[in-house]
Every structure is written in structure tokens, then in C-alpha cells.
Specification:
Layout lengths: L4 H5 L8 E4 L4 E4 L55 H11 L2 H8 L15 H7 L20 E2 L9 H4 L1 E6 L15 E9 L3 E11 L4 E6 L3 E2 L1
Parallel strand pairs: 3-4, 4-5
Antiparallel strand pairs: 1-2, 5-6, 6-7, 6-8
Length: 223
Amino acid sequence: MCDTIAERDSISPRSGIRVFCRETGSSFIFDATWRAASGGEQGPPGDDGYTPIKGVDYFDGDPGAPGSPGPPGADSTVPGPPGSDADVTGHEAAYDHPAVVSHAGSTHAPATAQANADITKAEIEAKLTGEIVSHSHAGGGGQPVGMTVLANDTTAVALATYFNVKLTVTAARTLTTTVPAAGTRCAVVVLTSGTTSGRVFVVNFISDGTNLYEAGRTAAMVA
């Protein structure tokens, strides 16, 4: 290494030795034929360098436009975390509401119960059989309909049960009966088959709840 060109040229050459000259900023390799020679012309000086200053923007161009938004992500197939305790408490509070508790404690139809809309007329009529004796309705009800045929010479006609009866007598008979509710109209149809046979009499009664009063009778009619 040497500082100047003159110092370099004064070095005794030895083959294969590299020499660096600070003045020229270059190096040389000596060989057996090397002779002292002057170096090449020095190039022009370079531009002054600078040290970047922190916080100083050395790029004064206009800012670029914002990028386009990316496509939406796919729906996740992983279930989310369970709700917080506050949510659970809210549901429990709803279940504890007095109206909910009252409904839950009331009587419910069984799961197999038939819906009202599915009940047929035939099913209702099948249940409406027999005589209703557990209660009565105000006003005494309407006029009884239908007629019950009693055995020949029956003396207990039970108008409180049958209301209208038909009876065949073979001789003079004394009839007895129960008394229906007040306002009930009853009828006894008597068919004779004794000395004068083939005749029909109809006797009508009305009840005051205690006694039966004859309301009228027909003359003998041909049966």
C-alpha cells in the first residue's frame, strides 16, 4: 500500500504482488515485466452525498389512490362460542315470569287428544244417549215429543217419565201416574178391546208440578 503515485513508482517490483495507491484509489499487480509507469487520469469528482433525516419525506409525488376492497370472505363453518352468562340469565328470567309459570302449571289436554274441529256429528250423537236426570232447565222445557207404547192393561202409566203413552185395555181400569215438572203437557191414548173394541180415546193433561189436570178428551174414535 502506498499513499502517492510517486511512492508507488519507487517500489521495487516483485512478480505477483498487489499494490493499492490511496491517491488514485486503484490497485496494481506486479509481474516480471512490470516497469514503473504513471497511472491513468483521475476521473471527475462525484456528487456530494447526504444522510437521510428522520421524519423527512424525500418522495414528493402525489399519494396514490386507495386500493379496491377485497372480495367478502366465505361463511365460517365453525360454530361461534356459547352465549354469555348474562344471556342465560335473561332466558331464565323469562321462564320465571308469573304468566309462564301459571300456564305451565295449568291442566293441558294429552298429546293424543282429538282436536275439536275433528269431532264428528256421529261421535256426538253416540254420546247423547239415555235420559238426563241430573239437572233441569228454567222454564220447564218445551212440549215433550214421542209416544211410549205400554203393555196391555198397564195401570201405572208414569207420565213424569214417558209424557205421552198409548195403552190398550181389555176391561175397565183405574190408572195411576207420576207427576212431571210444572207446565208439562201429557197425553194418554186408550185403545179399547173389550165389549166395545176398536175405539180410541185421547185424554190430555197439564201439570203444575204437584198435580195433573185434565185439559181435554176426545170422543170415541175408530181405531
